[in-house]
Amino acid sequence: MKTIAIQSIKGGTAKTTTSVHLASGILEQEPEARILLIDSDQQSSLRTYFRISTKENSADLSEFLLENRPYQDCVIPVEFGAENKRKKIDVIISNKRIADAEMKLFVLPRREELLRLRFKQQNLAANYDYVIFDCPPTLNLVTYNVLLASDYFIIPCSMDMFSVVGVKSVIENLDAVAQVFDVRPKVLGVLPTIYDGRNNFNKEMLEQIKVVFAHLGVFEPIRIDVKIKRAQIKNMSVFEYDSECNAAKDYGQFAIAVLSALNQDQVQSSKTQAVSSGSFNRAPAEVHSEVRSLRGSL
Ligand SMILES: Nc1ncnc2c1ncn2[C@@H]1O[C@H](COP(=O)(O)OP(=O)(O)O)[C@@H](O)[C@H]1O
Ligand SMILES: [Mg+2]
C-alpha cells in the first residue's frame, strides 16, 4: 500500500482537484487498483465533489481516528464514469466533527501517531493499493496525523508567491517531523497547477519554480482548463468528461509520472533499504534565501 498526501499550506492550489485526478488517473492506468481517498479537511470538499449524501449514522475520519471505528463503517463507495468503464474508489469524508477531534486528540498519548496506528490495527495495507489524502491548508494535529501516516508527498503550487511560500512551509514542516519522529517522508515533487501559458507572469513563475524547487523535483504543469470545473459539476474527473482536453492530458501524464516514481522508489528501497529523496533535508535558511531570490527575479 502506498500512502500519498497532497499537501500545501495554502488554499486554492488545486489540492482537492489533484487528489481526485490522481485517483482517477491511477485507475486509467490500473483499472483494478483499490484506492482509498481520505478527506482531512473540515470543508468536506470531497463530499461536495462526489455529491456524497451521508446517512445520519455514517462514520467519518474523526470516528476512524479517535474511536478506531472499523474502516468499513467509515468508507463510502463512490462510482463515476462511463457505464462500460465505471471507476470505483472508496472515500472517507471529514466534516466539522474533525475540528472537535482536534480538541480530543490533544489529551491523548501519541496524539500525532494515532492515524498511523489505526492503519496498522485495521491492516489497511491488505485492503488498499493506494491511499490518497486531500489535506487542508492548515497545520494542526489532524494534519500531523496525516503526515505521519503518509509515505509520499506531492505539493501543488499555483502560480503565485503565496503558493511558493506554502511549498516552503510544507518542506520545513516535514523536516521538523522527520527530526522528531522516526520517519523518512519522501517528496515526489512539486506540481505546478492552474497554469496559464498565455500569461507572461505565469510563464516566469513556472521557470522560477523549476529552479527554486529543482531539488524536490517539479512535475510538468497542469494547465488551466475550464473543463475541470465542468467535470466537477458532473461529479466526475476530466478523464470521463473530455479525455482530449488539456487538463485530462496533463493529469494523465502526471498520474503516469507518479506511478513511475513510486515503482522506482520501491525498486530502490528493496535494494538499499535507505532511500530518501533527501529533498527536504535542507536547512530552512537555504530555502528562505531561494524564495528571496525568487522575489528578486520576478
Ligand atoms: N487546472 C485547472 N483549471 C481551472 N481551474 C482549476 C484547475 N485546477 C483547479 N481549479 C479550480 O481552482 C479552485 C481551487 O481548486 P481546489 O482543488 O478546490 O483547491 P484546494 O483544494 O487547494 O483549495 C477550484 O474552483 C477548482 O475548480
Ligand atoms: Mg481542498
Low-confidence parts lasting 5 or more residues at pLDDT below 50?
271-285
Small molecules (ligands, ions, cofactors) in the structure: adenosine-5'-diphosphate, magnesium ion
How many structural domains? 1
Q: Kindly, what is the distance between the CA atoms of the first and last residues, rounded to a whole number of angstroms?
A: 41 Å
Q: Provide the helix percentage.
A: 40-55%
How much is the average pLDDT?
89
**CATH fold-level name:** Rossmann fold
CATH superfamily: P-loop containing nucleotide triphosphate hydrolases
Number of strands: 7
Derived from helix and strand composition plus strand pairing, the structural class reads alpha/beta
Gyration radius, in Å? 18 Å
Count of separate DSSP helical elements: 13
From the 3D coordinates, which CATH architecture would you assign? 3-Layer(aba) Sandwich
Reading the helices and strands in chain order gives EHEHHHEEHHEHEHEHHHHH
Strand order of the largest sheet: 3-4-2-5-1-6-7
Care to describe what's here?
The structure is a single chain. 48% of the residues lie in helices and 14% in strands. It is α/β, with parallel strands linked by helices and 298 residues long. The chain has one domain (2-297): P-loop containing nucleotide triphosphate hydrolases (Rossmann fold). Helix 8 (161-180) links the parallel strand 6 (152-158) and strand 7 (186-193). It is globular. The termini are far apart. Residues 11-17, 45, 193-194, 222, 224-225, 228-229, 232, 247 line the site of adenosine-5'-diphosphate (ADP). Adenosine-5'-diphosphate is lined by residues 11-17, 45, 193-194, 222, 224-225, 228-229, 232, 247.
